[in-house]
Design goal:
alpha/beta; Arc Repressor Mutant, subunit A; Restriction Endonuclease; three-stranded antiparallel β-sheet
């Protein structure tokens, strides 16, 4: 891509406004490179390319020219000539601004510098002057929950504590959090019974939507490829769409469910492995990261079927976790899990540094009104896992209590097939076995 392609000159090779601006700071390399990088990020789809690089990392793929081009075609319908070296040039210029390293195919992106140059919102609360950490955490959690009406402030508080790893005392919560945020115009709250100790009810305002929710949702929508208005659907509406007659609608609903669950757990989107739109709404997989205390990579798998999850389905996820380098698997099994599936998961967790969590349809029912119930459910699952990991396998195993590697070996072909897909496409699709 030459100067004209970057918008530095016009058709007569005269400086554009941008070209003149850059020419004026040519003696200040840092300012020059930063301003040019900002132009690439905001005007030449540079942000999309960087997000694609993160998706490739999540998929365990190298960020070669061919993989980047294929990803741009798959995700954004951008068709770049096979002989083009646009990505190499773009990467080199972004490297001049210290945004991307150029030494290997495992590019490291300085997202803090990206946000500094672009003012890009992330799935974190925008920096609002004068707010305490508690107030910021409360507002950010409301942006994630996006309640349709009133919601118990205690539920918001509990989720905020989990996501932001802080303690928010219930004592004088109205003085510390509710009243100040109401005075700023972000929330309205009431005590329906006027009884001390009863949960207060909170709802958001139009000002909250405009100044906090919309910027956060716009960023999430851009990164995950789900329209903003769809992300605003309630869990009840999403669950209803899982049973739609339209495979496209089911696929989008399944993707939305996975993202909403991940955000509710305080996770950051890393990349898709399988998208519901490509499986006819049968299943979806997303990789999300937690960096609250220590790095933890989650593999969220949703199966849209009333059939129970069996050991073969768990085996496939365990096999793929080794490729994706995940250490937590969350399986949303609408129909529940078979006894042999739970036993198999227990044996896997005894042998490997891996946690396998399950939630079913009944766990999804309370998420709109009591989102903290999901956290309680997963705490129970975590305690169950801790018990498993304390146990040791008996020396003699019955046929039903085989070494978990034996069971994984039975599904070696299926795991290998899915892993091959990892090497071929960004979304790592397609397997749609719903048995």
């Amino acid at each position: 891509m030459g100067p004209a392609g970057y918008g530095l000159v016009d058709d007569q090779f005269e400086f554009t406004d941008l070209g003149q601006e850059l020419n004026a700071v040519r003696d200040d390399p840092e300012k020059l490179h930063d301003r040019f990088a900002r132009h690439i990020l905001l005007e030449l789809d540079g942000l999309k390319v960087l997000e694609l690089v993160e998706d490739l990392h999540a998929a365990g793929k190298q960020t070669t020219n061919d993989n980047v081009k294929q990803g741009l075609r798959d995700q954004y319908d951008m068709h770049i000539d096979k002989t083009s070296n646009h990505w190499s040039q773009m990467r080199a210029w972004l490297s001049e601004a210290d945004l991307v390293n150029t030494g290997t195919h495992r590019y490291e992106i300085e997202w803090s510098k990206v946000e500094e140059l672009t003012g890009m919102a992330s799935d974190e609360l925008l920096d609002l002057d004068g707010l305490t950490d508690e107030q910021r955490a409360f507002l950010h959690t409301l942006a994630i929950l996006d309640p349709e009406g009133y919601i118990q402030n205690s539920a918001v508080r509990k989720v905020a504590e989990e996501i932001h790893a802080i303690d928010i005392s219930q004592s004088k919560v109205s003085d510390r959090i509710l009243n100040p945020l109401e005075e700023l115009g972000y929330i309205e709250w009431k005590n329906p019974s006027e009884v001390t100790g009863k949960p207060n009810l909170v709802r958001t305002t139009e000002q909250f939507d405009a100044e906090i929710l919309d910027p956060v949702l716009e960023d999430v929508a851009d990164r995950v490829g789900i329209p903003r208005h769809v992300l605003r659907l309630s869990f009840e509406e999403v669950t209803e769409q899982l049973d739609s007659n339209s495979t496209y609608e089911k696929g989008v609903a399944l993707e939305t469910l996975a993202i909403k669950l991940g955000r509710l757990l305080g996770l950051d989107f890393a990349g898709w492995r399988v998208r519901g739109q490509k499986t006819g709404g049968a299943e979806v997989d997303v990789v999300m990261d937690s960096i609250a205390n220590t790095f933890n990579r989650w593999q969220i798998q949703c199966k849209n079927t009333t059939d129970q999850v069996r050991s073969k389905h768990i085996a496939r996820e365990v096999g793929l976790s080794r490729t994706l380098q995940t250490n937590t698997i969350l399986m949303i099994a609408r129909g529940g899990v078979t006894d042999d599936g739970e036993q198999f998961a227990a044996r896997i967790m005894q042998h490997e540094n891996l946690s396998i969590l399950f939630i079913d349809d009944s766990d999804l029912q309370e998420l709109d009104t009591r989102p903290d119930e999901l956290l309680e459910t997963l705490r129970g699952e975590s305690k169950r896992i801790q018990r498993y990991k304390r146990l040791s396998l008996d020396n003699e195993q019955t046929e039903e209590e085989r070494d978990p590697q034996e069971v994984l070996d039975e599904y070696e072909d299926e795991i290998e097939k899915a892993t091959e897909n990892t090497d071929k496409t960004l979304d790592l699709s397609n397997f749609a076995d719903n048995e």
